[in-house]
Amino acid sequence: MLNCDKSKAMSVKIDQTKKVHIIGAGLAGSEAAYYLAQKGFSVIIHEMRPTKLTEAHKTGMCAELVCSNSLKSKSPVSAPGMMKAEMKMIGSLILDTAEQFSVPAGEALAVDRDLFSSFVHEKIINHPNIQFIGEEVDHPFPGKDEITLICTGPLTGDKLTEWIMQEAGSEGCYFYDAIAPIIETTSIDMSSAFIANRYGKGGEEAYINCPMSDVEYYAFIEALLAAEIVPAKNFEKEKFFQGCQPIEAIAKTGKESLRFGPMKPVGLDDPSTGRRPYANVQLRPENRAKTSYNIVGFQTRMKWGPQNKVLRMIPALKNAEFLRMGSIHRNTFVCGPKVLRPDLSLKNHPHVYFAGQITGVEGYLESAACGMLAAIFIEQRLLGMPHLAPPANTALGALLSHVTASEIKNYQPNNIQFSLFDPKYFENLDGLDREKTREGMSKQAPVYFQNWMNECSTQFS
Known about the structure:
globular; Elongation Factor Tu (Ef-tu), domain 3; alpha+beta; FAD/NAD(P)-binding domain; 461 residues; 31% helix; 17 strands; 6-stranded antiparallel sheet
């Protein structure tokens, strides 16, 4: 329980004349809108979908998941696990919904993407403090009593992108992101596959594993490297986010590289041979009914014809029916440390805030977390409170430090990971090995986070 001054918290009066406009109803926008609405603030969400779709989205639903259906590790001794714990302490719509509509995925928190987005959408559009408007917005709202939170993600509309580039100078801040294919379950050849979680972790066995021999693997690599790919736009330099590189880009670094990446066989034994496969492709359920699976880590920019042919060289997928082919799209982001204040507002436009992947965080979990942070800071502003951010020895604080205090010259999008934490902020961890250090950090961070929440007692009561 929080040690809050409840009388102080209850005495705060919300000024309903001050509107918060949120542009974009993705993970960040939905999380921010719900947080503020639950606190009694008037929120207006502006979403251009489905009237105008992006290269990746297919619906007009809030919080639509377009790439993976995973929100990363549930392990408490992991950076994503630590972030989940902190978000739940505050109250996260995204995490609560993810857990409600989760599908088996070992140690990962994966969701039925349709049920997930449908539930979030209903929560948002039916909230009495939220007005949902289906329209494209090309610039922030100028009123002095209005705050704009831009959560448009990496696929921002052209007109708003022009405004952002003019005000935030993000011409060179982009990377290419790819999407993995989804396969119909009945088309998977289970005589060439087996069901197991890596190292047997995560309870219910969830992954379909597609083993390959050395001959099959090298033939696959040759075909992959020869396949025709979708070129970059306008002859731009190809830049990929490290965590979502297309499989053909990984393969170019060496013929063995995929065996140490998305095709690694470690932690798995093929029951038909009793041995570890030479290479292995994992499939993860897309929905609770398990009528479809996505190919884990198989983002690709191959054109659809070659893609169909190459992926069917995996024995278990020789008759695969693809419900969604892999594809590639351009992601835009701002250089957060250069243009954003510590509260995620734009330096030359203090009433304009940014959150989500457009700030340079990468991943669904991180986008929702960034939306939550922006909402907390907007609340502080509307309540006349001083800016008070989570400390850098918490997961949310470490993510915020990356976005607003990284080195400007080499700023790139990042997931939440232990490398974003500064060990010097933790106590008595010197001399410990990496595993013990991470265990210590995962135990200490919630204490620091709780202390911060206690300092913000007006907000968290």
